[in-house]
């Protein structure tokens, strides 16, 4: 059945005041060019795409089973229409269990759930000296290890520390196999970062966090990202990254995009939750290990959008950073944009950028 809604529509060609008609996919967009600040209509934006989701609604991806369905439903309520379920560094049996659950969720989207596109394998192929909130199960990888995991669930994105012996070659092999490789949880130098990009790495995992910082004589991995990256993810909860650092990255990285790095505590009251094999505490708006280390977030993508606008970005730019750039990064031309033929994934916002409605593949939540 075909449906239609009206408002200020952010199309691939700019703002249109008019009507969007759709079923599972967008059929047509009719209207005329507009400046949305000059009328009171709602905003209709591409649905949010989150490539780094550990949990939500009290559930953690590493639990396996049906946990991912609960997580996808919680994030859908906040406008996320597509996501990557993200693993933690863990023993092989834990990762296998998580991927089995992700694989089932990716194969069949449940009613009211965000589309699970596949896996962001954040661990275990990282540097044990830069774990951040990752449990201590880091190890070196070979292509066969990743291929075995890929047979369980579709791996779309993988975080690697390139300075580990053999990992530069792995970056090339994974890139050649069609996976997006990100640099993260790394003690690597600026030179290691440049080498990884030259070997086919595509971006950086939660920029600034769990990587060597910028110094004017030792630029570090942050320096490599700021100098050379086209894409990088960051967590705009205003806890993980100072607004000044966000503004710096926005000037340097053309397609900087948002992720939540959200945990089981998302959408839940303060208290203790699981993050892989870690117990974490939600309090004072953040999630931390007992030693105070930030351990993911409780951010949702609708709040990420509001935070970006609060930093001074115009709404179209902010929208691209919570949707279109992530889709482009994964090569998804049918998501992250409002255009005929694209999936009918979009959000409706009021003038204060509060969610009024979420549509996922034409389904109204």
Automatic annotation (TrEMBL):
It comes from the Bacteria. Zn(2+) binds at residues 122, 185, 206. Its EC number is 3.5.1.25. It holds the Pfam family Amidohydro_1. Substrate binds at residues 133, 209-210, 217, 240, 294-296. One of its GO terms (biological process) is N-acetylglucosamine catabolic process. Residues 43-364 form the Amidohydrolase-related domain. Signal peptide: none annotated. Keywords: Carbohydrate metabolism, Hydrolase, Metal-binding. One of its GO terms (molecular function) is N-acetylglucosamine-6-phosphate deacetylase activity. Its cofactor is a divalent metal cation. Binds 1 divalent metal cation per subunit. InterPro entries: Amidohydro-rel (IPR006680), GlcNAc_6-P_deAcase (IPR003764), Metal-dep_hydrolase_composite (IPR011059), Metal_Hydrolase (IPR032466). The active site is at 261 (proton donor/acceptor). NCBIfam families: nagA. Belongs to the metallo-dependent hydrolases superfamily. NagA family. This is N-acetylglucosamine-6-phosphate deacetylase. The lineage of its organism: Bacteria, Pseudomonadati, Pseudomonadota, Betaproteobacteria, Burkholderiales.
């Amino acid at each position: 059945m075909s449906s239609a809604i009206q408002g200020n529509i952010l199309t691939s060609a700019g703002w249109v005041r008019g009507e969007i008609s759709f079923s599972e996919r967008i059929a047509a967009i009719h209207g005329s060019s507009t400046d949305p600040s000059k009328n009171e209509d709602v905003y209709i934006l591409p649905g949010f795409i989150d490539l780094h989701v550990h949990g939500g609604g009290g559930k953690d991806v590493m639990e396996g089973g049906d946990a991912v369905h609960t997580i996808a439903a919680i994030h859908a309520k906040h406008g996320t229409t597509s996501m990557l379920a993200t693993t933690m560094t863990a023993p092989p049996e834990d990762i296998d269990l998580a991927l089995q659950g992700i694989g089932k969720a990716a194969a069949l989207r449940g009613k009211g759930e965000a589309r699970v596109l596949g896996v962001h394998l954040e661990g275990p192929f990282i540097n044990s000296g830069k774990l951040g909130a990752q449990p201590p199960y880091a190890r070196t990888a070979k292509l066969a290890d990743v291929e075995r995991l890929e047979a369980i669930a579709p791996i779309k994105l993988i975080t690697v520390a390139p300075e580990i012996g053999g990992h530069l070659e792995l970056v090339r092999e994974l890139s050649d196999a069609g996976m997006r490789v990100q640099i993260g949880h790394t003690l690597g130098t600026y030179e290691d970062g440049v080498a990884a990009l030259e070997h086919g790495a595509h971006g950086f995992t939660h920029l600034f966090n769990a990587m060597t910082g910028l110094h004017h004589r030792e630029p570090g991995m942050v320096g490599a990202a700021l100098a050379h990256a086209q894409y990088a993810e960051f967590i705009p909860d205003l806890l993980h990254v100072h607004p000044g650092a966000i503004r710096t990255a926005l000037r340097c990285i053309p397609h900087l995009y948002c992720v939540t790095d959200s945990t089981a505590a998302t959408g839940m009251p303060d208290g203790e939750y699981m993050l892989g094999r870690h117990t974490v505490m939600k309090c004072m708006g953040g999630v931390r290990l007992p030693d105070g280390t930030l351990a993911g977030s409780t951010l949702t993508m609708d709040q990420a959008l509001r935070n970006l606008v609060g930093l001074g970005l115009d709404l179209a730019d902010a929208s691209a950073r919570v949707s279109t750039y992530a889709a482009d990064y994964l090569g998804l031309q049918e998501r992250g944009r409002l255009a005929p033929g694209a999936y009918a994934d979009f959000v409706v916002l009021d003038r204060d950028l509060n969610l009024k409605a979420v549509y996922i593949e034409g389904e109204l939540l």
